[in-house]
Design brief:
This protein has 25 helices and 19 strands. The protein is of the alpha/beta class. Helix 23 links the parallel strand 18 and strand 19. Helix 4 crosses helix 12, helix 6 runs parallel beside helix 7 and helix 9 packs antiparallel against helix 10. The longest helix is centred in the first third of the chain and has 19 residues. The protein is globular, with a radius of gyration of 27 Å. The two termini are about 50 Å apart.
Amino acid sequence: MKEWEKMLNLLSQIQTPEDIKNLDISQLPQLAKEIRRFLIKSVAQTGGHLSSNLGIVEITIALHYIFNSPTDKIVWDVGHQAYVHKMLTGRLKDFKTLRQLDGISGFPKTAESVHDIANVGHSSTSISTALGLAVARDLQKENNQVIAVIGDGALTGGMAFEALNNAGKDNTNVIVILNDNEMSISQNVGGMYKYLTRLRSAKQYERVKEDVTNVLYQVPFVGVPLLQTAKRTKEGVKSFFINNTIFEEMGFTYLGPIDGHNIEEVISILENAKQLKGPILIHIKTLKGKGYKFAEQNPSKFHGVTPFNYKTGEPLVQKDAQTFSSEFGEVMCNIAENNQNIIAITAAMSEGTGLSKFEKKFPSRFFDVGIAEAHAVTFASGMALGGYTPVVAVYSSFLQRAYDQILHDVGLQNLKVIFAIDRAGLVGEDGETHQGIFDIAYLSHIPNICLLCPKIPEEIGNAMQFALKQNGPVAIRYPRGKGEVAQNLISDYNSITPIEHFKGRQVVIVATGKSVLWALKIKEYLQKKYNMNIGIVEVACIKPLDVDTLFNFVKRYKQLVTIEDHVLVGGFGTIVANSLHEVGYSKLIQHFGYKDGVIEHGKIDELLEKQGLLPHQIGEAIKARVDGK
């Protein structure tokens, strides 16, 4: 045991949430200190989400102090702020395996613990899930509590408002905790952010409401009914001091805002909320990165981190200077210098998508719409109708949330919207909710769309220039992180025709994007071990696919292999096979990709090995097929 772990006197005693209830309330601030100490030093070793978890320590302790998990259901939004919840529900000893292959996930997982009520990794879902659980409870005539924990950033997502509207209409007993730290990954933006800012400053409302609430709760027998009545009528005392909040207008009882780091205050308001009926929203103000000065000063930097030196806050391994994201950001700035029509749109991911420099350089042409991917796409369609060329920069797994908008508002209208799709393919440690392995399938059948797959960062500029010359939607998908050396095989995107990089004899590999680099390694492996001469054809443009050129390249080979960093069903291999079949190709095709769309967390090479997709594994499978095995 490390020396710092020996200092966790209270935390080490917590094996289940029941153990927290055995502590005196005066001990809980010390427990919070120990949790933060553990968080900082543990995440420094494994990497993970730090700022959000440091900010929610007291709320999590209070939830487990007041409620009875798993009978009472605690639903976490996004889920990357659930580390403290995991510590307090028996997984403290497993934190050394956080986000590692076969270790604990960085997000709630039902298979991991009965205390994880739902699998989650995307934003703005918790209120909908909690409301479903609450209605199911009512139908079964049970009486447990259901609590959704959502951040103010996630509250910008339209799905959260749909759920609030539904809950208020049905008057269901559900508690929503709004963890307000003024941040998502980046600084929050928009009307909700401004509205919450006004609520935070409503000190008179807070003070008077708290005084009246405390007095009423002390009145025997009639205090609680009086308070419930006051909450539901315009005659309530608060109405003399401030207009109803938007949440109250939607049918919620609004409590707060309160200091989320005053654990006694949080416990008190949760205890009070348990006694009220109907939907309740508790507004709790917290500081993202609380207790670690580097994270407090730069919460975005410490939102998601690789292993770092906790004494200095600096990463143990410096990030690569050139990544696909950074190259995209540079390309956008260069294009915007000479093209006044270029607009950049992101959904709370300016830094992650590489647009930070563009935001500073061209603020009037940069739009962060908050965590609202569906809105981002239709907003872009409006900009295109208005004569601009919008570029929507978004992660592959988050663009899934805007499928109908891509189809209905962009594709069917054949609008010139460019989608810069970052994190396409495996992303690694964030696990199945973040793997970008479905985008080819859900984009390839969109009417009028052109789908490009650059394999190295140096091709981003060429792909963007090609996209700008088109008159309809273009999607450019590229992976996370740095590129690799591609033996100067740079696609210029002057045309959409497939490229024959190498001629071979028996077998040809047809690949796209990152998998072209895998093909090069497979070719090298088979040449060196079996003296096999493998052909390689790159398809940089999946749609429209120049099938005639592709057919001419592959028809002389006995065997064709497709490789992709994507699921097989509906993916690149499916498109190639179907297209070649239509022009009369009838030879054997061997497909390599992900058979199952559920790819757990772990380092990318570990995940590829588990899938049998490392170059030497694919090489051996190709050799076995050639040998007739």
